[in-house]
């Protein structure tokens, strides 16, 4: 019995010494994060991770330890190191395995830089501004925008724009990806069902269980398995098998004759981009329209209206500075992906914003905090104020800290 006690005390001491001597323990942060990740996990499972981390940053500054093997940063220096050093920054963590589609790795869910850049090469030109601005893509967006407005006008009283903006995003993204095969969920019930399938679900806790208990996941009862999307799957598999897809669409590039991707890989890639584009665009626009509708923001709405009203009809959308400011401010206040984008520190460890962090530590930045922490750059950070983007003073600093699309080689391909 005594031997068992001694062994337990020895192992416990070893554990404590190791934790205390780790360079991560030297980062600022609450004492308990030196020993356990349970508090962080509690906040993850109660959907509060982002606000918990934000509060820690407010208390401890730009670098904070959030678990024995995990740290969060909120500075330009850290963003550049983690997400852009060597072009694409550090490798992703296994959290991204949850984003495989049909069980297949996509560009987004590929963890390492080499395989990611190989895949990106296959499709990057589809997301270049020159392709996005092609008449066929622009006219599809215009058509869907008109359908959205008609939907709103058809309601006599209030309008649930959350629903119709998610339809707008789904129609826009699928028309870009599949051109003539794009959806019309703003007009057709059967396409509307695909929007519901993709948008209305709360799978966070179920996804986290799969991430933390991957070996047990195959034995989970059905109520613990994230919701499936059979109608979406059927649609995407059909679109990926098109014999003659429109030339400038995403599928047109992925399914070209000499493509190294097979049908399942093409379908997985397309489903991933569809998922990536819907909630982000729908949520972002919904927040923006809500802010603009508030009486306190009337002056911003009027300025935007004036810019659009006075502009020549053929003014390219990216030459309207106030529109740009309004969109950026919406994404700054409510980034559609507000939480950490986790990465592993590479072999040998790295110095991040002056702190040495050992290899294998999980590090990240979260847009919600990056857009708020430094109130010299973003004064009154919680206030929606597009005018801040119109000031010349501090413009470079503001733009450098704009992190809604992440940055570097693994930043959002769909941002344009
Ligand atoms: C307001 C709208 C959007 C926002 C805020 C947004 C944000 C982001 C962010 C933050 C990432 C990186 C996430 C990470 O590293 O964990 C990302 C990646 C990605 N996004 Fe977006 N996104 C938006 C719209 C779109 C659209 C419309 C598409 C496609 C049609 C798209 C396609 C992608 C893809 C394919 C990736 C993976 C890039 C890669 O791994 O190289 N996004 N997005």
TrEMBL record:
<dbReference type="InterPro" id="IPR036396">
    <property type="entry name" value="Cyt_P450_sf"/>
</dbReference>
<keyword id="KW-0732">Signal</keyword>
<dbReference type="InterPro" id="IPR002401">
    <property type="entry name" value="Cyt_P450_E_grp-I"/>
</dbReference>
<protein>
    <submittedName>
        <fullName>Cytochrome P450</fullName>
    </submittedName>
</protein>
<dbReference type="InterPro" id="IPR050121">
    <property type="entry name" value="Cytochrome_P450_monoxygenase"/>
</dbReference>
<comment type="similarity">
    <text>Belongs to the cytochrome P450 family.</text>
</comment>
<dbReference type="InterPro" id="IPR001128">
    <property type="entry name" value="Cyt_P450"/>
</dbReference>
<feature type="signal peptide">
    <location>
        <begin position="1"/>
        <end position="19"/>
    </location>
</feature>
<dbReference type="Pfam" id="PF00067">
    <property type="entry name" value="p450"/>
</dbReference>
